[in-house]
Write the structure tokens for this entry.
Amino acid sequence: MNTPSTSVSPGLGGFLAFFLLAIALWLLMRNMNKRMRRMTYREEQEAAARAKGGQAPTTPADGRAPGGSAASTEAEGPADAGDDRSGTIDPGPEGTTRPDA
């Protein structure tokens, strides 16, 4: 009797799909590590500023507000009265900072 082969392999298509997913994961991890290092560096700079007795800046060096939106300038006028984001930072647990809610 001649039985059909039951071994199935993913072949070249499966290898390429897995390889592309691995490359995408590597790029994402690399980007995440870069952002984590940048965040740690900023925290160290703020801690050094606080240790000197000065206040840490409320906006990062890239000009963005703590919530991630562009920082408002005095030329734009006062903030919307319905906007509850005050821009102040409240220290959270374990020395982290989080925006007031």
User: Anything to note?
Assistant: The chain has a mean pLDDT of 74.
